Amino acid sequence: MRPIYLNLIIASLFSATLLMGCNQAATNEKGQDGEKKLVVGVTMLSMQNEFIVNVHDEMAKKAEAAGVELITVDAERSALKQVEQVESFIAQNVDAIIMNPCEVEASSPAVTKALAAKIPIINVNSETSIKPSAFVGSDDVESARIAMKFIADKLGGKGNVLMIHGYMGQAAQIKREQGAREVLKQYPGLKLLAHQTGEWDRAKGMSLMENWIQSYGSQINAVFAHNDEMGLGAVKALTDAGLKAKVIVVSIDAIPDALQAVKKGTLDATVFQNAEQQGSKAIETAIKAANGQAYDKQTLIPFQLVTKENVAKFLK
Amino acid sequence: MENGINTYVNKVGHSYKTRLRGINKYGLMLAFISICLVLSFITPRFLTIQNLMIIVTQVSINALLAFGVTFVIITGGIDLSIGSMVAVAGVVAATFAHPDTYPVVVPVAIGLLAGLLFGAFNGLVITRSKVPPFIVTLGTMTIGRGLALILSKGRPVSNLSDSFNFIGGGKILGVPTLIIILIVAFFICSVILHKTVIGRYMYAVGGNEQAARASGIQLSTVKMIVYTLCGGLAALAGILLTSRITTGQPNAGTGFELDAIAAAIIGGTSTSGGTGTMTGTLIGALLIGVISNGLDLLNVTSYYQQVVMGTIIIGAVVLDSVNRPGTE
Amino acid sequence: MPLEPNNILEVRGLTKTFSGVKALNNVQLSLRKGEVHALMGENGAGKSTFMKILMGLLTPDSGQINFDGYPFKVGSVHDVLKSGISMIHQEILAVPELTVAQNIFLGRETNGRLFDWLNDRHLEKQARELLEQMRVSIRPDARMKELSVAEMQMVEIAKAISNQAKVIIMDEPTSALAATEVTTLFGIIRELTRKGVAIIYISHRMDEIFALADTITVLRDGNYIGTKPAADLDEAALITMMVGRELDTLFPESESQQGEEVLSVNNLSSKGKFSNINFVVHAGEVLGMAGLMGVGRTEIARAIFGLDRIHAGTVCIKGKPTAITSPQEAIQAGIGYVSEDRKQVGLIPGLSVQYNMTLASLSNYTSGLLIGSRKESEAATTMMADLRIKATGPSQKVVYLSGGNQQKVVIGKVLLASPSLIILDEPTRGIDVGAKAEIYKLIARLKAAGIAIVLISSELPELLGLSDRVLVLSKGKQTALLSKDEATQETIMRYAMQP
Q1: Which of A58, B138, C262, C480 is 20 to 30 Å apart from A267, CA to CA?
Q2: Which of A5, A215, A257 sits opposite B131 (nearest CB)?
């Protein structure tokens, strides 16, 4: 190996980062004609996730309308990166920070640091163990309760259920499992046949479902998947095996694909988490906090169950 | 004892290694069969035609990637960008696969072309710059992921035509298309590796680059072909995955490179190059699939599945290192 | 068994078995203080196993070893070194990034306390004294990787001396040395023996053995054959002991029947390597290339074969000027090259005998896109029989073959590409005397078949015995082109040393 190449790569990456930093600084100054433009730093869990992209797009839209400048960075699911990003926001002296936390514990230092620097920090979509200035989001436990309740109602409180987890140990997975188990406890007639992770992935959910069909076959009455991707994978596997008509599948997030599937009747229900509202409420709260106005410490956006009956109003 | 052909027997510590070598020669097959036997005793659902078909279907995408990476590893290289190529080819193909737009050959051809170009780019950088393939493909892995996100604007490309979804999700005479494609690809790759000049050259380049060059082999040509081939196979895998899950996902294939490399290594491909077979890689991929299917059937949590898989990979590499000639 | 007071090392009844095969069977050795004791035997005779036992790398099945008057417990390498036995390995085991001084004292810097401070300056001072004592000029603060192979060898010896070694084992210490360096080494060895150090000397070079050794012990197939004073033996007698049969005359008689001109090289130059090289080789002729190590012989061969770049001059094949830029083109032009470095440039160790041999001529066996396996294995089997390659079959991996047979595989590969010219670069390096004789016969056969041969060799008897003419090089320059009658050891050495 020739180390010189490695150096070159590092150098070019480094200079690219610097250039990007310069750009931001430049736009920052441009906004200063007339009164000072508010600057909000935004760090998102992952810009590869459709729901999160939707939350962010709504924030960007609202911010532009309000004449606020957004600096958005992608934490790429790394809490460490996220904390560093918040540190750099603090160094840039932004007016407010919106954080979509990667992890409950590991992202908490970012909150502590922002509060210490007297910069308001708003958590959007999920929580940290340290309380931020404000929280905008929905309670994940609630979404799973809604989904599992739907299954219980459909099965008349009796039957065999399978659960496909998200990435084990992530906040959303833990909470969605918690909500589902709460409902299962209320209905002793519902039996959890098996549960396993599908890592939020459609292909993995599909493979898992195929294997379960081999194990349990016609015993399966319903499937609860922690997100729509895995739910759609399960639907595919069940359809291929000719079992879909007998099995109820419910998942969470209401991504466009899932809404289409609900409309077609292949996916029985999904739970709508309102990305637009989370985004717009977050930016609203941030602006208020930056301007020193009063703001709500906690804004909970309710979930909505989407079934064939009401799917039309979610389809744009 | 006559002096002559037997002289090398006098090598140090031969007996212990001979024993292990014997294990490795038929060991993979033995391990595979015994794991299958154990599983069919524990759960009657394992050894059914239907379940076996499902295993092969699930394995097929990883196997295709593993075939490609086997070519690369045999030449002494590595390709970490295959997972990203899966995403790029999948997204590209999906973009052209909406109903009532193009005939189904168009998305397939464009997807494959994307993978071949991507692979050729890997080969070009590796042969022109002499930067180690590990670093080049580490870079293109990230580039590819970015490209897939750019092309799809970060969102899954869905609403694909039925004919496109048939490629990876349909059945012909009751046999899933994925299995048929896997078998065809396996035969073609085996023939390339074991029966053609370029296949032999791959072993030569991986076994000893200098000696290969001194035998009149053009190293850069061999490498270009190998990385392009690997890109093509990754693209095929990406198209099939997209078709199977009926959507082109920009984050599809994340981590697939490691599964594929694991399959090749379990199958006896030495990471130092020069050895490996397609049959071994196929069995390696099947072994991974069987274990994951079996553990799912037994409802073992994924935590344990990961521990089991890791143990198997290390076991395979330990056998490989014991087997490498000239280590004393 | 009475221990003679003059003996530093006594070995009796040493036996070692690997998976039922006796690698050593009842082997004995008596080493007197201050003698050079040559240990001889063909490859596979058991020399390495014997030495590995002495160095503590292997445990014997039975037998006893007395060292310095006491029974010697074979333990770890560390203990062996401490008790005063050192080995200069055939392949040099040095840490390239460390300095000469650091290498000499590696493992003994601080009397074994791992966390003591290192005093590099102190080590360098000691190393300098040591090297001066040996009369070699190597800077103790130079990094090991900056040294020539010969210098590294000297450092290894310095390491052994600094170890207060009473016995030094030298395994082929001259295989990488040029003649002048060999002289220096011999001087050091004589100095050591004067001080009472005993040397076990392993080499395939007869001239060295007779120049240096006081006593010779011969092993064959793991058995002890005998020990005799060197003065009582001559080359033929020694070879008979080693091989167990009379060898035919080493160099076969062959008549020179020169044919047409195959290769002519005009003013060939490569920056920093060689300049203005001119010679012609004819069909059925052997052109020897002589010179000290590193004077550019291998570089010339590599340049003609397209492995390295040529900066000036022309190469003509059968009268036609040919610009060769890659080995591929060279092979197409009918040139074959058997490298001095069998392991690095000659063979693909993990591939079979057949696959190695057909590698340079694969396109001859294809039908359509595929390799015709019948055609390929026929070609390989025929060549194996022709060259008398001893292997379990064409599918045996070459890594398991002996050095001589590996060399034949490389030659087989070159021959299958039907060359009109073969460059043989040190074709007998590191192979035993029986295999050498076979290679010599083969060269004579190729010559008779009308192939032009360029033979590079550091063994003058070999060069003189086989060559029709000898080209002598010194420091990258051509100093003489001698006819068979002119070429003697003395003239060649004179031209090779010419500044």
Answers
A1: A58
A2: A5
Task: Return all residues near B109 (Cβ < 8 A) that are at least 6 apart.
Answer: none
Residues A107 and A161 in one domain: no
DSSP character string of B43-87: -TTTSSHHHHHHHHHHHHHHHHHHHHHHHHHHTT-----HHHHHH
Q: Is residue B193's pLDDT more than 70?
A: yes
Distance from CA of B228 to the nearest CA of C (A): 19
Q: Are strands C215-220 and C62-67 parallel, antiparallel or unpaired?
A: unpaired
User: Are A265 and A150 in the same domain?
Assistant: yes
Closest approach of C139 to chain B, Cα-based (Å): 33
Q: Assign B232 to helix, strand or coil.
A: helix
Of C75, C64, C67, nearest in space to C28 by CA = C64
Chains with at least 3 CB pairs less than 8 angstroms from chain C: B
Is domain B58-323 given the CATH code 1.10.3470 in the classification?
yes
The shortest CB-CB distance from B197 to any of C327, C363, C390 is to C363
Q: Region of A20 please: left (phi>0), alpha (psi -120 to 50) or beta.
A: alpha
Backbone angles phi, psi at B205, to 5 degrees: -65, -40
C371 and B197 in contact (C-beta within 8 Å)?
yes
What structural domains does chain C harbor? 7-243 (3.40.50.300), 261-497 (3.40.50.300)
DSSP state for residue C342 in the 8-state scheme: I
How close B143 comes to chain A (CA, Å)?
A: 13
- For residue C370, list its beta bridge partners: B196, C367
A288 lies in the same domain as A192: no
Q: Which two tokens stand for residue C5?
A: 């007071």
Q: Where are the domains of chain B?
A: 58-323
Together in a domain, A133 and A177: no
Between CA C351 and CA C346 the distance in angstroms is 12
Of residues A213, C249, C478, the one with CA closest to residue B57: A213
With vertex at residue B236, the alpha carbon angle to CA B231 and CA B238, rounded to the nearest 5 degrees, is 90
Same domain, A146 and A265: yes
Q: CB–CB of A214 and B54 under 8 A?
A: yes
Residue with tokens 């007297």: A118
Strands C366-367, C370-371: pairing kind: antiparallel
Q: How many CB pairs under 8 A join B and C?
A: 125
Chain A environment of B156 (Cβ under 8 Å): 50, 255, 257
- Indicate whether A70 and A162 sit together in one domain: no
pLDDT score of A16: 45
Residue A33's CB: how many other CB atoms inside 10 A? Answer: 8
Q: Which of B132, B135, B293 sits opposite A211 (nearest CB)?
A: B293
Q: Which two tokens stand for residue C303?
A: 């340049």
Q: What are the tens digits of pLDDT across the range C103-145?
A: 888 777 666 566 666 677 888 888 888 888 777 788 888 888 8
Alpha carbon of A206: minimum distance to chain B alpha carbons (Å): 8
Q: Please name the residue of chain B whose CA is at the shortest distance from the CA of residue A256.
A: B158
Measured between CB atoms, does B174 come within 8 Å of chain A?
no
The encoded tokens of residue B275 equal 């050895």
> A174 is in which domain, residue-wise?
140-272
Model ipTM?
0.79
- The pLDDT of B62-90, averaged and rounded, is 96
Q: How far apart are CA C123 and CA B3, in angstroms?
A: 47
Q: Residue A8: inside a domain, yes or no?
A: no
Chains that touch A (3 or more CB pairs under 8 A): B
| Residue C437 burial (CB count, 10 A) | 20
- Quick check: C351 contacting B, CB < 8 Å? yes
- B217 CB burial (10 A radius; 0-12, 13-18, 19+): buried
B and C adjacent (3 or more CB pairs under 8 angstroms): yes
Q: Are A215 and A195 in contact (CB under 8 A)?
A: no
Lowest mean pLDDT among C198-207, C281-290, C320-329: C198-207
Q: Which residue of B has its CA nearest to C242?
A: B3
